[in-house]
Amino acid sequence: MSQLMLHHQPPPAVPSLSRTQEEQKQGVHNQESRMASGCRGKNSWPELVGADGEAAAATIERQNPRVNAIVILDGTSTTKDLRCDRVWVWVNSDGVVIRTPIIQ
User: Fold this and answer.
1) I need a surface site. Which of 42, 53, 56, 89 has the fewest CB within 10 A?
2) 102: β partners
3) 42-104 — its CATH code?
4) C-beta pairs of 81-89 under 8 Å, 24+ apart in sequence
5) Which among 77, 57, 75 is positioned nearest to 67, based on CA atoms?
6) At a CB cut-off of 8 Å and minimum separation 6, what does 37 contact?
7) Domain coordinates of the chain in residue numbers?
8) Which of 33-47, 62-76, 81-95 is predicted least confidently?
9) What is the value of pTM for the model shown?
10) Beta-sheet strands, E only, within the chain
């Protein structure tokens, strides 16, 4: 007589609200990989890190007229959907760009 063995698996772990910097870097890399194939025009502006956020947004929109660059304070919640017409420009409390703006 054979026995049927059921294996109880624990529920999947709930992701933490805070991610490590390495996870954030990997997430940006994955986002860049996803959007690079589907979105047209320039899609990443690493040269703007350290620049004024409003000036960076104007540069982004000038270099890729298909996008709307949105200046946003670091730590603000955003949607996670990929849109070829949106670039988050993450700034600190001084209005300085702190992450590479990419199409998201």
Assistant:
1) 42
2) 44
3) 3.30.10.10
4) 82/31, 82/34, 82/35, 82/38, 84/35, 84/38, 84/39, 84/40, 87/45, 87/57, 87/60, 89/48, 89/53, 89/56, 89/57, 89/60
5) 57
6) none
7) 42-104
8) 33-47
9) 0.65
10) 68-73, 86-91
Distance CA 57, CA 79 (A): 19
User: pLDDT per residue over 48-79, tens digit each?
Assistant: 999 999 999 999 999 999 999 999 999 999 99
Give CA angle at 22 (15, 11), nearest 5°: 20
Q: Which residue has the tokens 């990989």?
A: 33
Contacts of 31 (CB under 8 A, 6+ apart): 82, 102, 104
Helix (H, G, I), strand (E, B) or coil at 44: strand
Residue with tokens 């703006």: 101
